[in-house]
Amino acid sequence: MPPPPVIRIPRDEQPTRDRTGTLDVPLKFLDQDYQELKKSCFTNNRKYVDEKFPLDSSSIDPKKKLGLDMEQIKWLRPSKIVADPQLIVNGVSRFDYSQGSYLGDCWFLASVGALTFQEDLMDQVMPVGQSFGEDYAGIFHFRFWRFGKWIDVVIDDKLPTIDGKLIFVHSKTSNEFWPALLEKAYAKVCGSYADMQAGLVSEALLDFTGGIYVHFETAKTSIDLWSLMNRAAKAKALMACGTFLGKTSANTELPNGIVQGHAYSVTGVYKVTCQEKPVQLVRVLNPWGKGEWTGDWSDKSSLWDKVSEKERSRCRVLANDGEFWMSMEDFTKNFEDVDICCLSPNFLDSSSECRWTSTCYKDSWVAGTTAGGCLNNKDSFWRNPQFRVRIEKLDKECSGQCPENILVSLMQNHEKRNRSEVSNYAIGFSVFAIPPEMKDVKLPDNFLYRKRPIEGSGNFVKSRQVMRFFKLEPGEYLIVPATFNPKDCAKFILSIFSKSESHRRNN
């Protein structure tokens, strides 16, 4: 049987994009139309009650994993919790909320903390014009990017409480409710509140932006991570980080104030001068809303007395609000990884001469045809979908800044409603060099039998997404995404970002 057709990716062409599922025309999640439902509420003089996210245990904890006494829980509208409910009080801030004690969704809230910095992105996720004012009907809507499509999610504003207090995320200002409503909308997408228990920050970062995502292990990357984070901050990227799990258990607070196995927001990247020497700093936020690093450059560190008054007043805040500064050296010792999500990949390179082009493809592994498994399966590996890409030679000005010139991201999607029921396959991809003499011809059926990959994603891992940022010499290449085991079936999105010159040269 011949191999599946190889897809050639032209340099300057993008696949035709259907406008359905864009921010302008988002898909209606569970076929619920916000405007029609709101109109119906006014017509019938009633407040909205969401039948597709019912006010019972199925929406909170269907498998009883959180240890909650469901008989104690009452679903209340904000007007039944406080006298003057507001969606937003004095703007949206990372300091507005604290994580609830019943749900381990720090990965989600760390992403929310990063999101609050970007007003435009916040307006995408939480469309403007919503309030508890004149047009209030007990209905709100939010937008998330899910597996290549933007969706519009409708909720009512009844929130789970015990003794009149919110049991999950809650605002520090008692009458502010945007964090609780945002969390409820995301819980609806995940299937229930309990389905948000534990996760990777990268999931929410992508779901808030639909942008490019990169992941770095702080101890293993050879990239100047602080400089890249600094560029990302200037590019208005969302950033978060995670601590090492440790030998005991997650959420154990160390003597230095760092919580093990915990997700944090990255809220600032800054350089100060201390005793005439530059010091690279990173600002981090604990989504608990309290609990901070106590080492060098923490709020009470004496090192702040050795910098200029201008820098000290700009950076130092003496408050137990969960946010703190630390040196890049301490950051890499205490945090295992960093996740960055941005609408444009241009922050990956410091050269203004370069831009990054992107191509996104949706495909699937189908049993019996395109689910060939990893390279260990020599008789079926060739069945996997194959994508052809060309890397061009760059000018010295463009190529010299950042040696890495390609980013490949692979995301799988099983399309199950309940997030906790999704069992991700071990996935990865391999990159094969195409000899120059074969760059303009159809590859023979046995091409993959005779070639060894020159690059790839590394070990196959059970994750929603894998990515790799690496260097390829100019030439033609074949990218083959695969599951570790043959016959594993799933849809996937393959995104390829490559560096190009942003300027035109005169002949």
From TrEMBL:
Residues 1-21 are annotated as: Disordered. The active site is at residues 106, 262, 286. Residues 9-21 have a biased composition (Basic and acidic residues). PROSITE patterns: CALPAIN_CAT. InterPro entries: C2_III, Calpain_cysteine_protease, Calpain_domain_III, Calpain_III, Calpain_III_sf, Papain-like_cys_pep_sf, Peptidase_C2_calpain_cat. One of its GO terms (molecular function) is calcium-dependent cysteine-type endopeptidase activity. One of its GO terms (biological process) is proteolysis. Residues 47-344 form the Calpain catalytic domain. Transmembrane segments: none annotated. GO terms for cellular component: cytoplasm. This is Calpain catalytic domain-containing protein. It comes from Phoxinus phoxinus (Eurasian minnow).
